Amino acid sequence: MKKLLIVNIVVAAVFFSSCMTLQRDVFVSGDDIADDGFSVEMQSRLAVVDAAFFAGNDMRQMASDCSRIIADIEKKLAIPELEKRVASRLYALAGRAYLLSGRKDMAQKYHAESQKRNASDSELFVLGRRLGNAGFENALAARGDDGILVLESALAAYSASQFADAAAKFDTAFLLLAPFYKTAYEPLRDASWNLKDTVVADAMLSKLLMIDAITVLQMIEITQAATKLLDIYTGGKKYSGKRLFDVVDKAGLLKSVSGSATAIEQEQKVLSDVIATRILCARFLWNLYISSSSSRDAVKYSTRYRARASKSPVVDVSIESEDFDAVLGTVESEIMALKDGRSFDPHGTVSGVEFNKSVIRVK
Predict the structure, then answer these.
(1) Is the dihedral of CA 323, 325, 329, 331 positive or negative?
(2) Mean pLDDT across the stretch 178-185?
(3) Closest C-alpha to 335, from 277, 282, 279, 297
(4) DSSP symbol at 252
(5) Residue burial 125-164, b: 16+ Cβ < 10 Å; e: rest
(6) Distance of alpha carbon 251 from alpha carbon 23, whole angstroms
(7) Any idea what the Cα angle at residue 350 is, between residues 59 and 257, rounded to 5°?
(8) Entry pTM
(9) What sections of 235-277 are H helices per DSSP?
């Protein structure tokens, strides 16, 4: 009977100890603060903006989102009886929003306010790392199952172009965190996976490859950084910005080849800051391809199909399209690919990774 009593006491002690450990783990993971879900809502909204920042998007477009997040958090912080743990979390989240908005001074101020209330909050460590403070690595080592910290380590690896490491850490973080994190950051995880076997020595190229939807200028910049295809036009010099765009534009690499002479003459000028659609990328890549050999016929597809009055083999690009040759040419040359074996998705966007894979196939 005594033995049974001792066993029951030991089991009870282990049980309560486990509960306490679990409670502590839930607390440090940061997702279970009792504030009717307000903190989690702010985290989900901030995740979208944060992912856009790491994807290289123009943060001026996200400024209003950051401002609204900050305003909503400050309303909540004005409640006098707000629990310290909740206030700490909210100060840290608002600090991150300020930092994304370019307000480092306010981010530092809010970091101090968060630290006063709870020096062990996960979001505080994230904000601290981004402000250049020490402590993040130690916190991560002590809390290997804290999803927020694992996610931040994935973003750090992504920024450092350590893509294989980033991909693995993103996958781990998604298992530990609420689904909205995966929704927001999965494009970065996918980019990491696509780049995991790529060694990028050029810091600028690395940054360009991370962009979800490249512009025309970024398309040209990737070409210059990843290949020597533009050397014939630049004299082997490395240009940037408007000067690089003007060289490419003057060389006619942004002009279509499949329209009539009058149509091509009246063609609207392509601007450097517009999004490079798939059909525009095909045009640029086709011009690079045909210019690399004098034996290549720029209009062989439109000539053949129009002479026979044949139907286009690509369902969403007609034979009358000014970029008919570019689409068929890049697909047949395996520079680009059809989306489903039949359609090209001419107005779809192109990521830096996707364009890089295409441009290095131009021989």
Answers:
(1) positive
(2) 96
(3) 282
(4) T
(5) bbbbbbeeeeebeebbeebeebbbbbbbbbbbbbeebbbe
(6) 65
(7) 125
(8) 0.62
(9) 241-250, 261-265
Question: 3-state DSSP call for residue 215?
Answer: strand
The CA distance from 51 to 156, in Å, is: 12
In three-state secondary structure terms, 208 is helix
Burial class (CB in 10 A: 0-12, 13-18, 19+), 255: middle
15: which 2 tokens? 């049980």
**pLDDT (0 to 100) of residue 295:** 64
**Closest C-alpha among 274, 266, 265 to residue 245:** 274
> The tokens of 140 are what?
């991560």
Q: How far from each other are the two terminal CA atoms of the chain, in whole angstroms?
A: 85
Looking at residue 296, its amino acid is R
Residue 233 CB contacts under 8 Å (≥ 6 apart), including other chains: 247, 248, 251, 253
To 10 degrees, the CA torsion angle through 51, 52, 54, 55?
120
Nearest-angstrom CA–CA distance, 127 and 129:
5
Distance CA(238)–CA(221), nearest Å, equals 10
Rounded to whole angstroms, how far apart are CA atoms 60 and 66?
A: 10
In degrees and rounded to multiples of 5, residue 199 shows phi and psi of: -100, 115
Rg of the chain over all Cα atoms, to the nearest angstrom: 27
- Residue closest to 177 by CA, chosen among 201, 203, 210, 148: 148
Work out the average pLDDT over 225-234.
Answer: 93
C-alpha–C-alpha distance, residues 21 and 26, integer Å: 9
In the predicted model, is pLDDT for residue 220 greater than 90? yes
CB-CB contact of 325 with 339 (8 Å): no
* Beta-carbon count within 10 A of 183 CB: 14
**Is pLDDT above 90 for 205?**
no
Amino acid 1: pLDDT: 45
Q: Is the distance from CB of 170 to CB of 151 less than 8 angstroms?
A: yes
Partner residues linked to 275 by β-bridges? 215
Q: How far is CA 296 from the centre of its chain?
A: 37
Q: 66 Cβ partners below 8 Å, 6+ apart?
A: 49, 97, 98, 100, 101
Q: Kindly state the percentage of the chain with pLDDT values over 90.
A: 68
